[in-house]
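re: that chain from earlier
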Amino acid sequence: MLSSGFAKKFMLRQRNASQIIPYSRGSRFLSDSTRTSSATMSLRDNANASTETLPDADRRTGSEASKTAAYLDLAKARLSALVVTTTAAGFVAAGGPLSDQAALAGCCIVGTALCSSSAAAFNQIFEIDRDSKMKRTQKRPLVVNTLSVQEATTAAAVWGISGTSILALGTDPVTASLGLANIGLYAGIYTYMKPRSIYNTWVGAVVGAIPPVMGWTAATGGSLLDLDAMLLGTTLYLWQMPHFFALSYMHRVDYKRGGFAMLPVLESDGERTSHVILRYAAYLSAVPFVATACDVTSNMFALEGIALNSYALYVANNFRQERTNANARKVFLTSLWYLPTWLVLFLIHSKVWDEEKDRDVIRDQLSAFIHAVREQGKQACIHEHVVAKNSSASGEEGCPVALSKKITKGVIVDAAASTVQTVQGAGINKEI
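^ sequence. v structure.
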């Protein structure tokens, strides 16, 4: 009996062993697509298995919470929150009668958020396979099957149609057109370019630059080419380069795994990536001076911009000198607080608050608050005391920013006059 039982066990082990597929270093029996599919199915099975042991009531509650979280992930809620913030900043920067424009502001913000959510959802629908290969995206709702493709497509379509309709009915045609264009630009051109060209980042930066312009156009009835709007859009465009290139450098291995043509993926030493980060950080540092020279902001914005951008340039240069993940992370973290700080300073020093506008409760309170902040800043600023002392002693303007602005304008005027005289002289000589 003992020997018979042992023989049966031995035969069973032999039979099971014969079913094992042999594997050697030189042989591969699973294709990349098969392994990716297996990994995706495993993620989905784990997500579904987690609720199988729960009671029915708890399972339903957990399922509803899971669905809500899944739709928020599908909409990229944190990214959409940033979009809403920059849109609101653009709206407030116009300095309009805010109490009368409350409904207008609501339509602008809600419509823009829905358009952003729609673009993010379509992007994830098109990138399911690539997201499943990347560690940072393999828990997205479509990868783990928390949402079906049909559910995601329906949500994306509803969000896009609703957002565009709200903008069209509640704001103006220019703002609605920008919202619709941003969906196509992000979900279409940008998504198509990501695995094909490093210039996808430059296209994606246009998407991020549009929301503050939408806020401005909504508040001003469609004034797209106002200098303030152009400065806001330009700043958002430039800011995204250090921000995203630092992020993509930190996750370059993951992006390579997903098959995306990001600049850090296509180089081994990060040389070009560090150069782009430093270059765009330098471009950003010039914006406060341009805003001041164009009389959009006061002189203090340029001076405070020096302090703000000096640190940004410092961390960018450190990454240029030593290209490590730690230094890239410092650039990325700096970009997170840089943008809100820049927007606040821009709003505080904008000359729109010095203009006489129609009486409005909210605008008047905001304007009074901003002027109070300016006065507090002057009391604490050594520059202001030095300028006031020198100006009172000499009777002339002592601010270096104001002086440089006057000199620049004088040079431009003199150059223009010289050009006119040259042209006129050439015309006279020709007639003679």
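The CA atoms of residues 91 and 105 lie 7 Å apart.
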